[in-house]
């Protein structure tokens, strides 16, 4: 669907990372791991970028988590004020949480958005969750701590993910791996899953 939606809030959720919460248009239903296209006028030109849902549901409102690393579009999102409007379309993507019994989410950089959303959705459904998160300046610490308190296995590292992935993969029935992040992280995560002996198809969303 295409819609014009209002910004509800923009909040810092870690170093160079903001959570942008938007009104959900009527009938909008996205699962954690799906993404939307946001379009805005930046420096006089219409620009679009994709952002993954980082709230466990989209009832009334939904959140995306935006990494800030010098780009103009992400900087524009971080400067939005409540009540301002933005164009969105979506949801898009097939690599989302479908109530799997155990979600093992591997996240790099802004991939932490879908990771916390999937962990929260899994725990709320009585399922298991594990998160392996690579970032040298981690975000969403509070939500990761809360997930850990509810029984999720959470590992945050600024280095190699191989050992953490091997520990997170249990081989139990209903286990599914998810990977979200930019291409260099996706490559490292898929290599780590192979090394850990993970044989199913992981759900992988490459941010570019
Ligand atoms: C399916 C999909 C889902 C996405 N979901 C998210 C999301 O949930 N949150 C989010 O922040 N971004 C997400 N992205 C990336 C997002 O669409 C933008 O590319 C990003 O915000 C940078 O846009 P920009 O115009 O601000 O910066 P640009 O000028 O395009 O790039 C500036 C910065 O973006 C980062 N970047 C861009 N490309 C790469 C790359 N290949 N490897 C590493 N870093 C890179 C770097 O930090 C870089 O300095 C997603 C992309 C896709 C395709």
Q: What labels describe this entry?
A:
Elongation Factor Tu (Ef-tu), domain 3; 5-stranded parallel beta sheet; globular; binds flavin-adenine dinucleotide
Summarize the structure.
The chain has helices spanning 72-78, 112-124, 141-149, 162-168, 183-195, and strands at 2-14, 17-23, 35-42, 45-52, 61-67, 85-92, 102-108, 128-134, 153-157, 175-181, 203-206.
Describe the structure.
It is a single chain. By secondary structure, the protein is an alpha/beta fold. It has 2 domains: 91 residues, Beta Barrel (Elongation Factor Tu (Ef-tu), domain 3); 105 residues, Rossmann fold. It contains 5 helices and 11 strands; from the N terminus they run βββββαββαβαβαβαβ. It has a 6-stranded antiparallel sheet. The protein has a 5-stranded parallel sheet with strand order 9-8-7-10-11, sandwiched between helices. α4 crosses α5. The protein is globular. The mean pLDDT is 97. Flavin-adenine dinucleotide (FAD) binds next to β4, β5, α1 and α5.
